[in-house]
Every structure is written in structure tokens, then in C-alpha cells.
Amino acid sequence: MTDQTNRRDLFKGAAVVGAAAVAGSAIAQTGPAAAPADPRTKFTNQPFPEQKQKWPALQREMKPVPDCGEASYRGSGKLAGRKALVTGGDSGIGRAAAIAFAREGADVAINYFPTEEPDAQDVARLLRAEGRKVVLIPGDLTDEKFCRDLIARANRELGGIDILVNNAAYQQSKQSIAEITAEQFDRTMKTNVYAMFHLSKAAIPLMKPGAAIINTGSVNSVAPEEELLDYASTKGAILIFTKALAKQLGKQGIRVNMVAPGPIWTPLQVAGGQLPGKMHEFGQDTPMGRAGQPAELAGLYVALADSGNSFTTGSAFGANGGTGAI
Ligand code: NAD
Ligand code: MG
């Protein structure tokens, strides 16, 4: 199967849904709306081929290429005039959130590791062609000073900041604690926890009532995988940070929530996120019988940014195919 075929297969479900939605609205005056898509087959349920890329991995080189809603997400002005910064917005779940935010009317800044420039350019090209403002700010989030500079720059270039998505993460699977080096442990903590702290701390003074912080946790926040000891520990910290910060910021009218994905097909998984030889098992054991695609999480990020959900704060929302975690 060629890349093109893989990509076509992946988009097929979304394209059909899109067509059904259009047809549904057209027949709405004369008959019943089309049936909803079957979630078991809306995206590929085939095992993924074994593959490995050098960290941090490029989405455009994955087989199949993940679906971040590029061809399917349609906005309806829910975030018109909003200004959002998404870390890890070049690929995977962050890209899906960035695309959805832009199509809902927000101006978007995305941060990514400098070697991910090709993926970031793909997002920028797509959204700028649609007339949206996209600011690209590469840099290393393990650097505290860069975290502060990132917030200052996003604020300056967007003319404010009222949505912060702390989504970047480092994940390396290791069978045993004995194989986790101090360097790996440190990098996982710095990327997943410290950066969230530095970015939130710098952004909050710039935020007005109505702003939203959205952190990306995981099913590992409450149900750790044994081979993700360090990563799962950071995801547990992200859940508690979300709940505690929401208590502090309620008084300022700023909401803080967390999205908890289950197995989602993204670059993180092919850059050391899974143990060698395990790629074909990825997501196959969910009750839905498949891994998720980033596009399936976009709606959660939009909902948590949307001021319509004004009483929702300090909460976690899952997308995991029914694993029962969050
Ligand atoms: P991804 O690889 O597309 O995104 C992770 C991003 O983190 C990268 O694109 C990169 O830009 C960024 N990043 C990592 N280290 C960085 C650094 N030092 N400086 C700057 N940027 C850095 O993979 P994803 O799966 O979409 O990950 C997004 C979030 O989803 C993460 O928080 C991850 O833990 C979470 N998550 C993913 C899954 C899954 O199965 N894919 C499951 C649960 C949670
Ligand atoms: Mg990436």
C-alpha cells in the first residue's frame, strides 16, 4: 500500500462524514438527517506498521499519516476573536486543536521543537491559505527562559492571549525503572510539568476574565502503564495541577481544565513512545477496537476554550475509546 493510499483510507471516513453532514443539512427540510458515523469504522482500525523515527519524529513521515482534521473540521465561530497559544501545535493532538481553534475564528500561535519546522510549516500553510493568522514560535520548552519568552512573544504577536494549551510532552517507553536514566527522568519532568508551570505562571498575569487554560493529561493520569513510569508520574501531576490551579483562578474568572487522551496515533508513539515491536498492538485493545486519531479530540479542546462552558473548570475529559480510565 502506498502512502497516498494509506492517507486516502484514513481520510475516507472523515470525508464521508463531511459529505453526510452536508447532505443532512440539505435534506433537513424534506426528511430525516443522515445517521451518525459508526465510531468503530470512522477511522482506520488496522494495526499500524512497525516504524521508528528519531525524536521528536515528523508527522508527515508517519505511515499512515495521522488525521488532525485537516480535511474535515468545520468551525462555526465559537472562538471568534480569541487568541490561543498551543504548545506541540505542529503535530498530533496539538495540531488538531490548532486547526479547530483557527477554524472557529481564533488567531493561533504554535510552539514546537525547532527540528519540527516541516510539520509546523504544513499547519501554517494550510491555515494561512484559509485566511487565518498563524504565528510560529519554535523553541525548547525545557528551557525556563524560553518558556517566559514564548508567552511574551505570543502575547505581542497575537495582541493578547486568552487560551493557553499546555500540550507538548516527552514520552519514552522503558520496561523497567532500571532502564530510565536520570537524563530521561529529568527531561520528561521538565517538558511535561515544569514547562506547564512556567508557561502558566507567565501567561496568567496577561489573561483577563473569560480566559482558559487547557492541559493535556492522559489516561496515564489515573491508570499508569507499567512501561511509562516517569511519563505517567508527570501526567498524574498534570491532573492535580489542573484541579489546584482551577481553585486559585476561579476568583479571577479564568478556567483550567484537562483533556485525557487514550491511545492516539501521533508522532510521539513512533519516536520511542512505544516499546520496540509493539506498534501493531497500539490501540487494538480498546473496546472500540482501534486507536484514536487526533481529529477526534479537537471538539474537546474547543469546548473547554468556549466561554459557553463557563462553569466548567478543574475538570478532566477523556477520549479513549472506552478503556474506562477518565
Ligand atoms: P506529538 O508528538 O504530535 O506532540 C508532542 C509535541 O511535544 C511535539 O510535537 C513537540 O512539538 C512537543 N515537544 C516535546 N518536547 C518539546 C520541547 N522540549 N520543546 C518544545 N516542544 C516539545 O504527540 P501527541 O500524542 O499529539 O502529544 C500531545 C499530547 O498528548 C502530549 O501531552 C501527550 O502526552 C498527550 N497524550 C498523547 C497520547 C497518545 O496516545 N498519542 C495519549 C495520552 C496523552
Ligand atoms: Mg511534532
Give an account of the 3D structure:
This protein has 326 residues and is α/β, with parallel strands linked by helices. The protein has helices spanning 3-27, 92-103, 117-129, 144-158, 182-203, 229-249, 267-273, 298-305; strands at residues 83-87, 107-112, 134-138, 163-166, 212-216, 255-261, 316-319. Strands 3-2-1-4-5-6-7 form a seven-stranded parallel beta sheet, with helices on both faces. Helix 6 links the parallel strand 5 and strand 6 (255-261). The protein binds nicotinamide-adenine-dinucleotide (NAD) and magnesium ion. GO terms for molecular function: oxidoreductase activity, acting on CH-OH group of donors. Belongs to the short-chain dehydrogenases/reductases (SDR) family.
The level of helicity is: 25-40%
Task: Show unreliable segments.
Answer: 1-30
Q: Give the averaged pLDDT, no decimals.
A: 92
Tally of strands: 7
Q: Would you give the CATH topology?
A: Rossmann fold
**Cross-sheet strand order for the largest sheet:** 3-2-1-4-5-6-7
Strand content: 5-15%
Distance between the termini: 36 Å
Estimated radius of gyration? 19 Å
Name given to the CATH architecture: 3-Layer(aba) Sandwich
Ligand kinds: nicotinamide-adenine-dinucleotide, magnesium ion
CATH top level label: Alpha Beta
- Given helix and strand content, the structural type is alpha/beta
**What characteristic shape results from the CA principal axes?**
globular
Number of domains: 1
The helix count comes to: 8
Q: Specify the CATH homologous superfamily.
A: NAD(P)-binding Rossmann-like Domain
The main sheet comes to: 7 strands, parallel
